[in-house]
Every structure is written in C-alpha cells, then in structure tokens.
Amino acid sequence: MMPAARESLLDAAFAALVRRPWAAVRMVDVAAAAGVSRQTLYNEFGSKDGLARALLRREADGYLAGVDRALAAEHDARGKLTATAEWTTTLARENALVRAMLTGCWNERLPAPATAAVASSSAVPAQRRADRPLPSPADFVVIVRDRAVAALAGHESADLARSCELAVRLALSCVAAPPGEGGVADLVRGALDTV
To answer: d(Cα 34, Cα 7) in Å, to the nearest integer?
Structure first.
C-alpha cells in the first residue's frame, strides 16, 4: 500500500475517534471514509487493534516532530524550552490521544495502548514499528528532555538536563491543571532563571 493511503486510513480513524468512542468505530466505516476496501484496511493493519496501535504511534511521532520544530524555531535556550512547553500543552489540549500518552490518563473513549510488544507478522515496516509498545509518560519526559539537551548543546547552564526536564514537567502539569494568566510561557520563563 502507498504511504498516502496508510495516512488516509489513519486520518479517517482519527476523525472517527473524534466523533465517537473507539469501541464504536467500525473498520468498514474507516475504510469507506479513506476510499479503500475493508480488505485493504485489514491487509495494512491486520486488525482494529493494529489500526489503533498505528494511530497511537503516528500521534506520538507527530508530537515528537513538533517538539523538534519548537526546539529548532527559537534561538535562545529559554525560547526553545518555552516553545516546547507551549507545543506540549497546546497539542495535549487539542488531541486526546496525545494527552493520554503524556499523562497516562486513558479513558473508555480511547483505544488502549499496548503495554508490551505485539508479535508482528506484518510485512509492512510501519506496522511492525507500530506494534512496539508506546513510550510511557515517564519515557516521554526523558525523550523530550534529551532532545532539548541536544538542541541546547553549547548553551551555558549550571544544570542543563535539570532545566530541560523542569520545562517538560511544567508543561505536563499545565496539561493536568491549565495555568492562569500568562500561561505556560510565563511559568517556564520564571522557572528557568538559570538557563
């Protein structure tokens, strides 16, 4: 299958999930919305669980790609970390799957994440990757922290890794309890006096 068709199927699955709980999402409806046969959908993902794993993987990858863009867009350390925190909180507010991945707070509307690798017999490399377990919320903190540290290489800081992790954890706290006036940007800037 062409990557564009796979993306169309994932887009259709995401759109269906926005409208109704995952348990009510039907494979036939996802295939029809993407303009492919149900058999094509099963050939690509293997099952509804396989589709769910691929959807979760795509959303996780999209979040991390946004982290990379935020870190690349700004010039100074505080700006990079603030942009990353703002991206995290904005996407988590808009995307229930990303919010659940970052907080570990899953609900009955969402597909359940695989907690262990699934034996994949798929010939599709993207599906084999999707069949691996998602990072845990703690893993995401480490992944984003490490990407920030790499992006800030050369910046002076007493404890760069600690400052990067602080920015990530502040962003996650703002997902759970939205900040008041000034938002996450003011919180991160205020907390990062050492960066």
So the answer is: 9
| Interval 10-67: pLDDT, tens | 999 999 999 999 999 999 999 999 999 999 999 899 999 999 999 999 999 999 999 9
Question: Is residue 24 one of the residues assigned to a domain?
Answer: no
CB 168 within 8 A of CB 191: no
Instruction: Report in angstroms the alpha-carbon separations of 137 from 83, 142, 166, 167.
Output: 20, 9, 15, 15
Whether 138 is in a domain gets the answer: yes
The pair of structure tokens assigned to 32 is 């029809």
User: Which one-letter DSSP state was computed for residue 22?
Assistant: G
Does residue 1 belong to any structural domain of this protein?
no
List, for residues 130-171, the tens digit of each pLDDT value.
Answer: 888 889 999 999 999 999 999 998 766 668 888 899 999 999
CA angle 179, 185, 186 (to 5 degrees): 75
Length of the chain: 195
User: Is 155 contained in some domain?
Assistant: yes
Contact 33, 16 (CB under 8 A): yes
Residue 121: count of CB within 10 angstroms of its CB: 9
Q: Determine the residue type at 48.
A: K
pTM confidence score: 0.90
